[in-house]
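Practice problem. Given the sequence and the SMILES for pyridoxal-5'-phosphate, write out the predicted structure.
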Amino acid sequence: MKIKSKLRNNFIPVNTPKIFSKDKIYVKKCLNTGWISSEGSFVKLFEKNFAKYINRKYAIAVSSGTAALDIALKSLNLKKNYEVIIPAYSIISTALSVLKLGLKPVLVDCDLYNWNMIPDDVLKKISKKTRAIIITHIYGFPVDMKEIIRVCNKKNIKIIEDAAEVIGQKYKKRKCGTFGDLSTFSFYANKHITTGEGGMILTNNNKYFQKSSSLRNLCFGSEKDRFNHDDIGWNYRLTNIQAALGCGQLENISWIIKRKREIGKMYHSLLKSNSKIYIQPLTNKFSKNIFWVFGVVINKNSKIKRNEVVEKLKTNNIQTRNFFHPMHKQKIFKRMKIFSKWAKFPNAEYLSKNGFYLPSGLGIKNSQIRYVAKTLNKVLKNY
Ligand SMILES: Cc1ncc(COP(=O)(O)O)c(C=O)c1O
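Answer key:
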């Protein structure tokens, strides 16, 4: 099936980042200074401005969102074999950061509406061995965190908030990334703001700040004995060039969030009456969808499979991306026997088999959104 349209022959990528004129000015300025590695004023400025924007005291810029998770978790200084609760439905980085430290990942299923960890299930998974929970906000809505935070405070369980996908999103009236003992962000090209590759850790706790800063930079020793290292760290530094780009991007964050919501609203209005698919609402009880990406899930009553839909969109030059693969089904974890082979997380499995997201990057044009939605409606009409 081929759709007739002027746009038909123009490939629409799943993400096109937006580079602002300020980004170019700052990157050029950075290059002119010669400070192109991680030493340099843009790194500090980016950290300061990002911490201010989210409203946290300390910021540590790092090379990716994955690095941010590794560092944040190690900063908690947990003993091996203790348990860390994480979502079954998210990027593999979460489980990797737990496993790299010899800790035990305990999975929680997501719901089928917000696609986030189910708060009651998180509470049920808390055991005597639980030392931390990684609360991961997926795609557009935050996790409903109130009760989880209350119980964690009472039981002294630490919270890492993975806010990689929801920069600028609020839970009730407060920004995501202000609830965890530490919070983490990613600045990959498809995130709300980008540094190409990059990430950030935020905290209000000076001890975690010191430890995270050291872990980012190979845990170098004191000035007098620099090459005598304090702990097992990493080189997870962000470059000054990347930070310069981040500074420019951050100046445009209000526009970015507004545009992301516009893209989401447009897709929503064009697809909401299609009974073959589930799309998320514009708002829920505790937040307004920030539409990091626009996700679509094929309904149980539909006769067409996700992979066929995706293929048909591809023949019409529309790139999509399938939803995450559930953690307990990852081939590497099966081989390593990390999770019980009887483990079942039906919602994560359902989303993974039936979900995909549409082109939703900041570079997309309204005419392209209309074309994508029209093509998807047409593909689904025959089933
Ligand atoms: C929720 C979440 N956490 C962490 C990451 C890892 O970020 P990065 O790709 O910068 O390593 C991602 C990446 O997409 C993510 O979606």
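Check your answer against the key. The radius of gyration is 21 Å.
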